[in-house]
Amino acid sequence: MSEKNSAWPLWEVFVRSSRGLSHVHAGSLHAPDKDMALRNARDLYTRRNEGVSLWIVSSNDIVASDPDAKGQFFESPQGKDYRHATYYTKSEGVKHL
Amino acid sequence: MAAQNESGGKLSAVLSPEEQAGKDRFEAIIAEDSRIEPRDWMPEAYRKTLTRQISQHAHSEIIGMQPEANWITRAPSLKRKAILMAKVQDEAGHGLYLYSAAETLGTGRDELNDQLLTGRAKYSSIFNYPARSWADMGAIGWLVDGAAIANQVPLCRASFGPYGRAMVRVCKEESFHQRQGFEILLELSQGSEAQKKMAQEAINRFYAPSLMMFGPPDDDSPNSKQSMEWKIKRFSNDELRQRFVGMIAEQVKVLGLTLPDPELRFDEETGQWIHMDLDWEEFKAVIFGNGPLNAQRMERRREAHRDGAWVREAAAAYAAKMARKTEVA
Amino acid sequence: MSTQKTDHSLDSFGDSSASATRVTPGNALRPEDIAIQKAVPSEANAQYALRLGDDALILAQRLSHWISRGPELEEDIALGNIALDQLGHARSFLSYAALAWDKTEDDLAYFREEEEFTALHIVQQPNGHFGVTIMRQLIVSIFQHLLYTELLKSSDETIAAICAKAVKEVDYHRDHAIQWTLRLGLGTEESAEKMRHAMEILWPYVDEMFKDEPLYDELGDAGVRPSTLRAAWDEEINAVLADAELEIPKTGSAMSFGRQGQPSEHMGFILAEMQVLARKHPGATW
């Protein structure tokens, strides 16, 4: 019973591999609290100089889109190719545009 | 259709429209060789198979720490001590990457760990063999990690995204493991007679068990076919074993040592390596708990878990106290 | 199966392998570089490096035993990192000391007798339960951090360079020990009791860390008299222990003289294990 209570929660780890780049999800780990999670992440995910910065997020706090609704959720941008520069072909060949 | 029921993991023959849509999408993703992600619909059997495979893989990394950890304190030079320590530590890391992937399928680490400690989960049988000499550190690196890498490289493309990504990370780190093992053997083979003998004996002991790491022959491997259809596995057990034998048959020449297999030869006609018969009865006996060290390995794991209980409880209690403090403030 | 609802699936955000496994060795000073450097230490400086190296080596040997035995896998890795750091410091200091006597780090680690070692008794103390290891880490890492910080100004350039790397790593060891001391001190009644027990068995070996010896007369600005670190050490550890609601026990001070070649009883066992293989094959390379 105490064993169940003492199970450490899950944390998601994001690593910035060098300045100028985004933090990228690396994986998860277990830790009793956020301070230890940060330290454990350093030991687990940056043993080979893989990072200059870490983000830790409690896995329970992640809000994610529903994969079953993938169709509707990501449908809108489909077909709106005028959002991309390549849509505008008439100006091709004009310099610095 | 029975096959559909099986892969759908549902007892009822009729799928709800949502399930049918999920199933169709699952099959389309597999067919176009894309990746399944944790929140996608997937057949229960796919989830089960992966949870079993990934967690067994993780358990193997964790139990696999023991034979090598035993030699950290006795490593014969400080450089070797550092390398071995880093390697065993990596194995803990690999176990964690894999548990992390397995957890995305919905089973928590607690439960996975419990499956290991209560003997409900299996792990790679090779770690139930003793590491008696320093040369075993070489043989484990070269043969055992070598076989593991041969197995793992194709898994980087496994259809389940988190598994593939964990394997990419593992494979990148693992390449040093095999090299350091080979170099241990190379140093020994160029050393004194006693060192050379130590190296040869280690190879003799680990050769057959490392070939068995690829699993039973294809005609005796019932789960392989489904795993290949789901694109979890990309090559059959025998194909991978072939590839591995071919590699080590060449590498052993550099060591000036021999593989303990008088039947080993490349058959030009079939393009296959012929190797000695492997003792699959022994393999099964070890898997089912009767290897030389199954009891010892498990007890060491249980002991660490037991001895750590008060620490885990204290840390959890502290976290709860701090959380309450923040709430009040 | 409620866990399935919780999203553990951050893995679906981009390619985690693309940047996060970039491997670079960095450009830190390595023991291998020191072993082939031209600058040879004086006898006194070599003796000093030997002491620093012995402390780190024996501590690394002790800590490495935790790998595969930690209270949680994450902690196996943390303690493994700390052990590896300490081993790295040991190798650098010993490689440097060895230059004075035309020896190697391995000659010094594997072919000296017990009474030739100079390690403090505190690092020779057994791991005990996790709380004992953490308390030993707290005591030693605060000490090492203060010492290495001062040694950045050492007139011996190699010692200063080794400390420049080591001090950052030891700073992390100190942080690790502090974090755990807080959690174990304030966690449960059981954990607090275990920490009190750890302090009782370790505190007798605290004073030895701060004993000056005649060697310091010869060292000049190359070394730091440990007695000068005591006040800062007291202040720092007292603050941590107060936060963790732990009280320093009223134990006396043991007559321990590790620096003078009088090791603890543990040392024989430590060396028997560490040296057994190397000594079976004298002259061998590995």
Please indicate the percent range of residues of chain B in DSSP E strands (runs of 2 or more).
under 5%
Order of helices and strands of chain C: HHHHHHHHHHHH
Q: How many distinct beta strands of chain B?
A: 2
Largest interface: B-C, 64 and 64 residues
Alpha carbon gyration radius of chain B: 22 Å
Class by helix and strand content of chain B?
Answer: mainly alpha
H and E string of chain B: HHHHHHHHHHEEHHH
Low-pLDDT segments, ≥5 res of chain B: 1-10
Oligomer: heterotrimer
Task: Walk me through the structure.
The complex is a heterotrimer of chains A (97), B (329) and C (286). Chain A is α+β, with helices and mostly antiparallel strands and 97 residues long. Chain A has three helices and three strands. Chain A has a three-stranded antiparallel beta sheet, covered by helices on one side. The model of chain A has no long low-confidence stretch (mean pLDDT 86). Chain B is an all-alpha fold and 329 residues long. In chain B, helix 3 runs antiparallel to helix 4, helix 4 packs antiparallel against helix 7 and helix 6 runs antiparallel to helix 7 (161-189). By secondary structure, chain C is mostly helical. In chain C, helix 7 (130-151) packs antiparallel against helix 8 (157-186). Chain C is globular, with a radius of gyration of 20 Å. The termini of chain C are far apart. Classes of the chains: A alpha+beta (97), B mainly alpha (329), C mainly alpha (286). The interface between B and C is large, with 64 and 64 residues.
Concise synopsis of the structure shown:
With 97 residues, chain A is α+β, with helices and mostly antiparallel strands. In chain A, 21% of the residues lie in helices and 22% in strands.
Q: What is the strand and helix layout of this fold?
A:
The complex is a heterotrimer of chains A (97), B (329) and C (286).
Chain A: H1 2-5, E1 10-16, E2 23-30, H2 34-45, E3 53-58, H3 70-73
Chain B: H1 2-8, H2 17-31, H3 44-72, H4 78-103, H5 109-117, H6 135-155, H7 161-189, H8 193-212, H9 224-229, H10 237-255, E1 265-267, E2 272-274, H11 280-290, H12 294-307, H13 309-328
Antiparallel strand pairs in B: 1-2
Helix pairs in contact in B: 3-4, 4-7, 6-7, 6-8, 6-10
Chain C: H1 16-20, H2 31-35, H3 43-64, H4 73-100, H5 105-110, H6 121-124, H7 130-151, H8 157-186, H9 189-202, H10 215-219, H11 230-243, H12 266-280
Helix pairs in contact in C: 3-4, 4-8, 7-8, 7-9, 7-11, 8-9
